[in-house]
Amino acid sequence: MGDDRALIDLAQLVAENHQAVYRYAYRLSGAVPDAEDLTQQVFLIAQQKLAQLRSAESARSWLFTILRNCFIKSCQKKRPIPAGNLRLNVETIPAVVPSVEAIDRDRLQKAIDDLPPSYRVVLGMFYYEGCSYREIAEKLALPLGTVMSRLARAKGHLRCQLLEPDRDVGVRRRRGTVDLRG
Amino acid sequence: MDKRPADDPRILEALEACRPGSDDLSDPAMELLAARMAGSPELDGLYERLQRLDKVLADAYQDVPVPEGLADRILARLRESPMGETLGTPLEEAPIDVPQPAPRLRAGGRLRRRTWMVGAGILGGVAAALLIAALVGIHPQQQPGWEEVCNAAIERFNQDLLAGGGKLAPAAQPDYPLSGFLSTQDLQVRWRPIRDFFQYEGVAYDLIGPGGVTATLYVVDDDGKISVEGAPPTDPYNSGDRSSAAWRENGLLYVLVVAGQVKDYRRFIAPASEAWT
Q: For chain B, does the N or the C end have fewer beta carbons within 10 angstroms?
C-alpha cells in the first residue's frame, strides 16, 4: 500500500518495536550485550533497507526476519549440544502444568543456549513469533519434516531441563508449583 | 505388539508442532494425529497438557526485561551511521546567550556543519508535521486534546532525536521563554526554532537533566486554540519509554517530552511548583 509506506518512519519503527526485537534477540543470543548488539544491528539494517518494507503491518515480522538472519550469521558456536543428542521426549510433559511464574527464567535461557542455533531459531519462531510449522518451513526454506523434527527435539530438551523431576528442577519451588511426577 | 500412539515419532512430532490455542490440528498434515487422538484418551490428554504447557513456556519465553534507554541508544547509533546523515540534520554547535549550551544527544555524537542539509531538515520537519497530523487526525476546525498533544509531541521527539533536531538558533528567543515550572537544577539547555508544531511556530528547548536524562520542551503560540490548560500534572502521559505533559503558561502552549518514565519526568519539574498542589 503506497499510503502505508509513506507512514513508515524509522524513529517510529524503533519506538514501536525495539522491545520486541530485544526480547527475541536475548532469547536467541542468551546474553544482554549480545542481545543489544543484535538489536542495534537489526535497526541499522532496517535503516538501509527501509524501502523493502511493504507495509507498516508487516514491520515486526520483517524485523524478526532480519534478526534471525543476523543471529545465524553472527553465531559464535557456544558449545551447543550435538543435534544428534536431542531426542523426542514426551515423558517430560508434566501431569500438572506449572504456572508461568513458576518457570525459572535463567534456567529457561540456559536450556535455550544449549541448543544449536538452527534449533534455537525454530523454537523462537514457534514460541515468540507464534509461527505454525508450515510458516517456519516456508520462511526458513526447510522441509516440513525437518522443522517438525527440530521443533519437537528442541521442545523436548527445554522440558527436560526445566521440568524433569530428577533434575535440580527448573521450576521454582514456591506456591503455584506442582507435583511434576503426576 | 500394538504400538502405543505416543511411541510413534510421527505422532509425537505432529503433537509438538501444534501451537497452543491454534487450529493446527485441522491442518491436513495433522490428519494422522487427529485420527489417533480420537481413538486414544491417553494421547488426547497428552495433547491437552502439552497445549497448556506450551502456552506457559511461550509466556515465559517472552518475559525478558528490556534495558533502560535502549531506544535512545539505537536512535543515536542510527544517527551516526552513514544513512543517518541523509535522514535529518544533526545539531550544529552554535553560540547561545541563554541558556547554557549543551550537546543535544549523548556525548560522543559528532556534531557536523552541513548547511546544505538545512533545507532537507525543513522538508523533514514538514513531512513530520504531515505525519503527526495524519496520525492524530487533526483538521483545521478540530484541535487536539491533551493526550493527542502529548502523543504527537512524543512522535515529534522521536523524529527530532533521529534527525538531530535541526539547526540551532544563534541567540535566545525571548518570545518563547523557558517554563517557570521547570526545575533548573543541573539542567543543561539548548534551543532551536520550530515552525510546524501543530502548524504553530515556537521554540524547542533540548534539555539534559540530572543523570543525563534527555528531554525536549516545545513552546508554541497557538492563540489558545489547543485545549490544554493549567499546570504540568504530577503524572505524565506515558508511551513506551517516553513521558509527556502539556500545560499553558502566559498564553503559550508548553509540551514536555522526557526520554524516560514518570520518575525521570518528575526530575524536570520543580517540586515546589503549582504542579504539585
A: N
In angstroms, what CA-CA distances link A21 with A25, A46, B71, B262? 6, 12, 11, 24
Q: Measured between CA atoms, how close is A6 to chain B, in angstroms?
A: 9
Does the beta carbon of B161 lie under 8 angstroms from any beta carbon of chain A?
yes
What is the predicted ipTM? 0.78
* Phi–psi pair at A65, nearest 5 degrees: -65, -45
Side chain identity, residue B196: D
What is the pTM (predicted TM-score) of this model? Answer: 0.53
Amino acid identity of residue B126, one-letter, is: V
Domain residue ranges in chain B: 5-138, 146-276
CA distance, residue A140 to nearest chain B CA (Å): 16
Q: Which residues of B touch A36 (CB under 8 A)?
A: 67, 70, 73
pLDDT digits (tens, 9 = 90+) for A55-87: 778 899 999 999 998 888 777 545 556 666 666
CB contact under 8 A, B16 and A147: no
Length of chain A: 182
How far apart CA B72 and CA A44 sit, in angstroms, is 14
pLDDT tens digits, A81-140 = 666 666 667 777 888 888 888 889 889 999 999 898 889 999 999 999 999 999 999 888
A97 to chain B: nearest residue by CA? B53
Looking at the partner chain, which of B19, B81, B134 has a beta carbon nearest the beta carbon of A132?
A: B19
Instruction: Classify each residue of B44-58 as buried b or exposed e, where b means 16 or more C-beta atoms within 10 Å of its C-beta.
Output: eebbebbbbbbbbbb
CB atoms within 10 A of CB A84: 7
**What residues 223-252 of chain B have any CB closer than 8 A to a CB of chain A?**
240-242
* Contact yes or no for B14 and A93 at CB 8 A: no
List the one residue out of A109, A107, A117 whose CA is nearest residue A82.
A117
Contacts with B, A 97-116, CB within 8 Å? 97-100, 103, 105, 108
Which helix (H) or strand (E) segment is B237 a member of? strand B237-239
Best CATH choice for the domain B146-276 from the list 3.40.1000, 2.40.30, 1.10.260, 3.40.50: 3.40.1000
Residues of B in contact with A150 (CB under 8 A): none
d(CA B138, CA A155): 49
Spatial separation of the C-alpha atoms in residues A32 and B128, rounded to whole Å: 33
d(C-alpha B257, C-alpha B152), whole Å: 10
Angle at B109 (CA atoms; ends B108, B115), nearest 5 degrees: 145
